[in-house]
Here is the input.
Amino acid sequence: MKREPKRAMPRAKSAEKNARSAKAGTRKPSLAPTRRERVQSKEDAIIAAAHKSLTTRGFAKTTMSEIARKAGVAEGTLYLYFSNKNALARAVLAVFYKRLTQTAKTGVAKCATTREKLEFLARHHLESIIGERRLLELIASDVRNTDAYEGSDVYKMNREYVAVFDDVMRGGVWRGEIEDGAAQWIKRDIFFGSLEYSMRTLLMKKRSSKKDVAAVVAELVKLLMGGAGVRTEPMSNRDLTKAVERVDAAALRLERLSAVKM
Amino acid sequence: MKREPKRAMPRAKSAEKNARSAKAGTRKPSLAPTRRERVQSKEDAIIAAAHKSLTTRGFAKTTMSEIARKAGVAEGTLYLYFSNKNALARAVLAVFYKRLTQTAKTGVAKCATTREKLEFLARHHLESIIGERRLLELIASDVRNTDAYEGSDVYKMNREYVAVFDDVMRGGVWRGEIEDGAAQWIKRDIFFGSLEYSMRTLLMKKRSSKKDVAAVVAELVKLLMGGAGVRTEPMSNRDLTKAVERVDAAALRLERLSAVKM
DNA sequence: CATATATGATGAATATCACTCAGTCATTAA
DNA sequence: TTAATGACTGAGTGATATTCATCATATATG
Here is the structure.
């Protein structure tokens, strides 16, 4: 847990140039993978192997040789693709976030109301992190503190992920379904913080039932929606305020009226 | 990060027998420390050294030899007192929790209302964990997962600590200051989860001002108190509803009145 | 007081890692 | 065919947690 290398990774750079051989006039399309494809699939294999080890045994107990064995490469090869164990773990996390964001987006899109969207997001998040709880350890500890976290892939992916929540909340406020209370970052922290802490509690319970998950989700959404449980569709703050103003004005007129008459 | 030893710690057992020499008739009280006192003070020195290293450099970068040097003992000696690095870290955490519980209890006792108690607890927790953020890493990762966490000192101390919050909440509900909503464990998770997540956000902000801490605390307490914030801020849905009812009733009376008069 | 025994303490030795690097192999270019 | 480039390898290195044979001191016992 120290020596951070400086050497740039000789690893295959990102996308582009999927075109095989442009001059494929006479030759068959050649089913053999190109060098670039082979490199890519090897990188995928390494990440998959690391993912498996990390999620089942945790960061500390996962060894590089174990990953190498699972991925079918030599130990040294790992360092051609990732500069160190932390970087590899970050790559795994980035994949996790990418998938999480994808499923979150499509799920939210299917929901009609803000309440439904929030409920879906909460349950989705909670169930996902329960499944891959070991990955979350990474975020809290090493991976987040050593070398550059901001600017890393995980950081960017994480931003994209929480943006899904932000959009839902802002949409809800805009449509008057949620009262516009605290700053957005506070709501975000309450949302994700509560869920991640609940995860620990749920994991410690001997039999954490579906009901427990549902209870956490319901309570959290209730709080974020403005606490006005009232079931069904609570009036928005905006609407209530307008109603008060109307009633108040009416009362005032009546008072003046009766004052005249009296 | 593996070999967990089985050998029982030959470490000095807990309290009792502070009495030096009971037959202190003729002899002076003997200022020389007893064996037990020497052992105790050495244990304290080790924990203090470990605390310093852990909080400044984090778990991974803290080495046992570093701790031994700081504590003024040989490396092997550490293992007479703590079975391994994890156990030592847990001991440090236990001390942290003990102090935290102490200050929390006395602080809460000084507050009059439930709201004040909650606000104090939230601010106290947030400021404490910001100060010793490195210790919290431990909880999320290794220390909590390896070997027996339940039944450990940290676990018990943690239970005691969160009990302070539980008491405040239950007291508030009992006195009608808080609506009795979700299960207690859910409220607890929301409280501590939000704060610990906020900590990360605050630490990433370049200049996390007092105002940010205050904002998080205020919002969280507002939510837990049932939204009945009343706070300067916009009225809660619940209060607005009540206000509408009051105004509505008044208007009704006036209408009847003017109807009679008319 | 002298000796025996238990309790503490030590640090060199061991086992595991993460990480490096000199060299091999394979594919493409000339 | 040969040269050059890129990909890969695994024995080697240094760091670190943990063990253990041994020593030191204090207490108990005669």
User: Anything to note?
Assistant: Chain A touches chain B through 64 residues (CB under 8 Å). Chain A has a mean pLDDT of 80. Chain A has two domains: 35-82, 90-229+237-247. Residues 1-3, 10, 35, 38-39, 42, 73-77, 80 of chain A lie near DNA strand D (CB under 10 Å from a C1').
